[in-house]
Amino acid sequence: MKSSPHRPLILKRRKLSFPHSDAASALAGDEPSGQNVGSPKQEEAKPKEHGTNKTEPGNREVPVGGIRIIDHPTLSDAQVVAIPANTDVQSIIDALTAKGKESGSNGPSKFILISSTQFTVFQVLLPKLHCGPLSLLKTLNSVCLRTSLKPSFGNLGLQNENLRVCIYLGSAETTSSVLDNSLTNIQWLGNMSSSGLNPCSVKKETEKENQTPKQKAIKVSKVSSSSTTSWQESFSERPPYSYMAMIQFAINSTEKKRMMLKDIYTWIEDHFPYFKHVAKPGWKNSIRHNLSLHDMFVRETSANGKISFWTIHPEANRYLTLDQVFKVSTFHAEKEIEAPFIDTGLRPLFSFLGRKMKPLLPRVNSYLVPIHFPLSQSVILQPSSKMPLPASQGASETMQSSKPVCIAPKVRLYISGFFLPISCCQIYFTVSHSVFLLQVLPSSEEPTLLPAPIPIKEEACDGELSPFTSQQSIKQDACWISKESFAAALHIKEESHNFHSNTWAPHFLPTRPFTALKSPSRSKLDTLVIKRQERQEMGRSRRKQHLALPSSEEPVLLQPTSRSESCTVGNDPPFATDTHPLESTSQFSCSQGEVIPFKSAIKEMFCKLPISSIPSKAPITTPAPFLATTDPWRLAPFVKEPSDVLCSPVRTPPTSLISLQGNLDILGLGSTPLRPSLCDSPQLPLLNAETNDMVSGPLTSSPATSKQSSPELQASALPENHSFLEGLVLDTMNDSLSKILLDVSFPGLEDDNLGTDLSWSQLIPELK
DNA sequence: GGAGTTGTTTATACGT
DNA sequence: ACGTATAAACAACTCC
C-alpha cells in the first residue's frame, strides 16, 4: 500500500468493548486520570453510571427483585421485562402485577420477558396480561422448565390461554461467559425509551468526532447486584452488530426505508446507548464510512438536492429490524451429539450435530435472527396434497407428497417437542454451500404438539456429495411439509441421489425459478461499467454518489410471465428476470444521462467479475446458470402474505453456492451483499412494493404522487413489523453445521387469532 | 468566511 | 484472504 504523506500513522485499533461488571466496579474506585495513555480502549470504555436502581432519577420502573420493566424500543404496546438470572417466578409475577396495576387498562398489552440462562434465551410475549396470573404462571412455567428460573407451578391446569410464548432457544453456555452474557440479549434493546436507565452523558455533543471522549470524569458506580450489573452491562457493551447491520436496522425502522445520516446517528444512539455514551465519536465516521463503502446503501437525494437519504438497495435489503434480531448463545452442538435431550423439559428446540458454530456477526458467536413469515394461516395445506401454487406458476414445481422432506446430508436435526403454538416453522440451513428450507406448514387442524424429541436424521452421503452437484440439482432446496406429517417425514432418510431428484424442486417457486437466475445481463454489466467510466470522465461531484432516481425515472422491473404477481406483492411491478435484462435495472442502472457511479474500485471489480465470495472449500460443480447468479442476499420468491402460497419472504439464496457469507447475507448482516449483485443477475425477485416507493420514489414529491405501492401492500410485503416470524438458519462449512439461526413463526401471535382457546395442557405434557 | 456536516476514499489494524 | 473497525484526509456542502 502506498503511503500517503497526509496520512498519519494509524494508531492501534481500539476496542470499544466495555469492561465487564467486575472491571467496571473496579474502575469505580480508580480515578482514571492516571491511566496509561497508550491504552485508549480503556479510557473510552468507561461507563457512566446507569442501570442502577437507586440513584437514577428517571428510573420510573422500580425494579422488583432486580426485574426491570422498560419500554420496548419499537413496540409501543409492549414492554420488556428483563429478568436477572435466578429470579423466581413469583418475583416475575410480582413485578408484572405491579406494573399491571400501575398501568391499568391502558398498560402495555405485551410483555416481553427476557432472560438469559445457561440454555435459554427466551422471550415471552404476553399479549394479554389481563388474562390473569394463572395464565401468566403457566406461561412462565413453560419457559422456566429449563432455565434458572424456578417454576413452582408445574401442575396447573392450562386452559383458556391467550398467551403465546415465543421461546428463543439458545444453546448451552459452558463457561462463565454465561454471566457475562446475562441479559446481553437485551443489549440490542438499548436504552429503548427507558427513562430508568438514564445513563449519564459521558460524551458531550460538543465532542469532535475523533476526539477521545472526556471520560476522565467518568466514574463507574458500583452496582450491588449481579442483576443490575448485567443490566448495566447491557447498556454499556458494544452492540454485537456491525455498523452495516445497525445501519440496516436504522433504515429499516423507518416506514419508507430511508433515513438521513443524522437520523441514523440518532437511531443508533437511541437504540445502542453504547454509541451515545461510551464509544468515541469516531463511530460516526465509521457509519459514514460504511454507508459509502457498501453498495447496499444507496444514497438518495431529494429533487432539490438538498436532502440526502440513505436507503438500502432493495435487492440487498432483508428488511431486518432490530426487534427481529436476537442473540442466542453459543451453540455447542457437540454436547448435544453426546446426549441429546436427556433431561430436558425444554431442551434446545433444535440441536444440530455438528461442529462448533461459527459466528454470524462480529464479536458474537451466533445470533438468532427471526425472519418474517406470513402470519396468516389462510393457506391450509394438507399433508399429502400438493402445495397450492399460484395459478400462474403451474404445477410443475409442486411438491411430491411421497417425498415430503429433504434433509441434507450430514445433517442430523433434532427437534424437541416444544412447538407449542407454533403453526408454522421454517428451518433454513445450509449444507455444503447449499441452502435448505424446511417448512412445517399450518394445517387445517388444531395445532398439535410435535412428539419430542423428533430426530431429523440424515446421514452423510458417502461421497461427500453435495446435494446440488448434479446438473439439475439445485433449484430451491425447500421442503414444505404439513405438521401432521412432519414427525413422520422427518424420519425419512433421503438418499443422496434424492437430492438430485425433483423432490428438491422448489415447489413454491415459480415455474422457472432459476431461469430468473441466469447469468447477469451482460449488457447491463457493460452498461454499468460504461456509466462508471462516464462518471469518472465527467468528473462529477463526489457527493453525487449513485443517487437513486425518482420513481418517475426509475426503470421498471419486469416480471417474467411465469412469475405471477401472486408470488409478488400486490400489483407492484414484479421482479425482473432474465427475460428482460435491461429492464431489470435497479437504481443502479439509471436513465440516460444518469450514471452509475460505483463507489470504489473494489466494487467495480466485483461488477466485472461475477465472482462469489464463497469460500469454495468444496468445489461444487454447479450448473452454469446458477453459478453465475449467486446473489446471496437475493430475495426468495415473495408471496402475497395472506393468500396464495406460503413463500419464504426470506431472501433465500437459490443456488448451491451458498456459503457462510451467503447466509450472512441472507440475514442482511453479512458483508457487502451487493457486490455480486452488481455483476450478477438482477432478475431476482425484489420487494418492489418497497423498491418503487422507497428507493426510487421521488423524494420530494408528495406521497400521493409517488408510486402506487400502497402502505397496505407494503405492510403485507414487509413483515418487519410482524416480529413473530422466525426461522432457523443453519450454516455449515465443511459439511458440518457451523452456526444456527432459529426462526420459528408464531402466526397469529400478533393479531391474536391463533387458537386462543388452545389448551396448553394439550401442548405441554409436562404441565399436565 | 468559518465552523460544522456529509460523503468518499485511503490506509491500517484486527479477527476469523 | 476477507470482512470489519478505526482513523484520517479531503472535498462538497450547509449553516450561521
Automatic annotation (TrEMBL):
Gene3D superfamilies: Winged helix-like DNA-binding domain superfamily/Winged helix DNA-binding domain. Residues 1-64, 533-568, 692-715 are annotated as: Disordered. GO terms for cellular component: nucleus. It is found in: Nucleus. PROSITE patterns: FORK_HEAD_1 (PS00657), FORK_HEAD_2 (PS00658), FORK_HEAD_3 (PS50039). Residues 559-568, 692-713 have a biased composition (Polar residues). Residues 238-336 bind DNA. Residues 41-59 have a biased composition (Basic and acidic residues). The keyword Secreted does not apply. Keywords: Activator, Cell cycle, DNA damage, DNA repair, DNA-binding, Nucleus, Transcription, Transcription regulation. GO terms for molecular function: DNA-binding transcription factor activity; protein kinase binding; RNA polymerase II transcription regulatory region sequence-specific DNA binding. GO terms for biological process: DNA damage response, signal transduction by p53 class mediator; DNA repair; G2/M transition of mitotic cell cycle; negative regulation of stress-activated MAPK cascade; negative regulation of transcription by RNA polymerase II; positive regulation of cell population proliferation; positive regulation of double-strand break repair; positive regulation of transcription by RNA polymerase II. Its main location: nucleus. Residues 238-336 form the Fork-head domain. PANTHER family: FORKHEAD BOX PROTEIN M1. Transcription factor regulating the expression of cell cycle genes essential for DNA replication and mitosis. Plays a role in the control of cell proliferation. Also plays a role in DNA break repair, participating in the DNA damage checkpoint response. Promotes transcription of PHB2. This is Forkhead box protein M1. The lineage of its organism: Eukaryota, Metazoa, Chordata, Craniata, Vertebrata. The gene is FOXM1.
